[in-house]
Amino acid sequence: MGLLERFENGDQVALARIISRVENRRTGYQDILARLYAHAGRAQRIGLTGPPGAGKSSLVFRLGELLSASGKKVGIIAVDPTSPFTGGALLGDRIRMQDLSLDPNIFIRSMATRGSTGGLAEATRDTTMVMDAFGFDLVLIETVGVGQVELDIARACDSVVVVFVPESGDAVQAMKAGLMEIADIYCLNKADRDGAERLVLELQSVLGLRQRTNNWEYPIIQTQAINNIGIDDLWQAIKNHREFCQSDTSPEDRQKERIANDLLTIVRGKVDRRLRSVLRDSETFEKVVADILAGSTNPYSAAERLVAELSTALTS
Ligand SMILES: Nc1nc2c(ncn2[C@@H]2O[C@H](COP(=O)(O)OP(=O)(O)OP(=O)(O)O)[C@@H](O)[C@H]2O)c(=O)[nH]1
Ligand SMILES: [Mg+2]
């Protein structure tokens, strides 16, 4: 039986092989994606993001347990942090996650850090689509911190949970850092620790200032992943958000937005790869850098000229 056939028959080994192919951009991966796309579009995509060590993996673990117990099939993607400092924590995650991976309703995948940051968002999105096509009801995506990659990944999710902890300190600072703005749901984990109530109050006042583009009331859910407390509440908030989105925008509009986002990411990824390969072999590029250094031009004018020259190369 072929790999795709095994995939379509629900073989998780085939799923893992296909994800690797897609992730490594091996020959034929685009044909695979194109074929699987027709089966995707049903899974609920949930992003969990937050500072290192906030308990994202623990929450994903608990949510996975809860959902699996109610008969749902759950795909989990852990996007590896770029920072080498969290490597230890990740290893710990993997060990804990192994218990969960024995559950036939659950499939866990770690995404390796890509050379190019844009590539990671693209690979994560592709993997999500593959899991969706495989038939998972939900895909939970864990990312660390906030950067362009996290924002891109978050944008591809139906609901984004931002996890923070009593030690997060000044919630206003976090808001400024951009992390809070991508949240649909706030999750204060480690609520067993001192300072939880104070931070909830602080966040409530900050949220009062948050610009609303719709009538969604941002919930702040307190959890203790370690004690399995508050996980039901978190899941309820995620369900509420889904219901809200379904009533707020028509399915067609949501579909359109998702397709537009997907398309943009795919195009961006392709252009980025082409751009890098063209620039790498370009003598012009080296020369322009030298010219800017010598003061005979500036990056703005030079970029304008380069783009004009490159657009020919990119389409050829
Ligand atoms: N006190 C307390 N500790 C918790 C709670 N939830 C998780 N932890 C602990 O916090 C540590 C980090 O948990 P992880 O789930 O690995 O956190 P993470 O956000 O996934 O970490 P990174 O992926 O490394 O960013 C672990 O030692 C957990 O046992 C909680 O509710 N209370
Ligand atoms: Mg983690």
What is the share of helical residues?
55-70%
Kindly name the structural category.
alpha/beta
The small-molecule ligands in this entry are: guanosine-5'-triphosphate, magnesium ion
Q: Given the structure, what is the number of helices?
A: 13
CATH class label of the largest domain: Alpha Beta
Shape call: globular
- Our measurement of the CA-to-CA distance between the termini, rounded to an integer number of angstroms, reads 39 Å
CATH topology of the largest domain: Rossmann fold
**Mean pLDDT, rounded to whole units?**
84
What profile does the largest beta sheet have? Answer: 7 strands, parallel
List strands and helices in order, with pairings:
Layout: H1 3-8, H2 12-23, H3 29-37, E1 44-50, H4 56-69, E2 74-79, H5 87-101, E3 106-111, H6 117-134, E4 138-144, H7 148-155, E5 159-164, H8 171-176, E6 185-188, H9 196-209, E7 220-222, H10 231-248, H11 251-280, H12 283-294, H13 299-315
Parallel strand pairs: 1-4, 1-5, 2-3, 2-4, 5-6, 6-7
Note the main attributes of this structure.
316 residues, Rossmann fold, binds magnesium ion, alpha/beta, 57% helix, binds guanosine-5'-triphosphate, 3 domains, 7-stranded parallel beta sheet, globular
What does this structure look like?
- By secondary structure, this protein is α/β, with parallel strands linked by helices.
- The protein has three domains: 1-38, no CATH class; 41-249, P-loop containing nucleotide triphosphate hydrolases (Rossmann fold); 265-315, no CATH class.
- It is 57% helix and 12% strand.
- The chain is built from 13 helices and seven strands.
- The chain has helices at residues 3-8, 12-23, 29-37, 56-69, 87-101, 117-134, 148-155, 171-176, 196-209, 231-248, 251-280, 283-294, 299-315, and strands spanning 44-50, 74-79, 106-111, 138-144, 159-164, 185-188, 220-222.
- Strands 3-2-4-1-5-6-7 form a seven-stranded parallel β-sheet, sandwiched between helices.
- Strand 2, helix 5 (87-101) and strand 3 form a beta-alpha-beta unit.
- It is globular and about 60 Å long.
- Bound molecules: guanosine-5'-triphosphate and magnesium ion (MG).
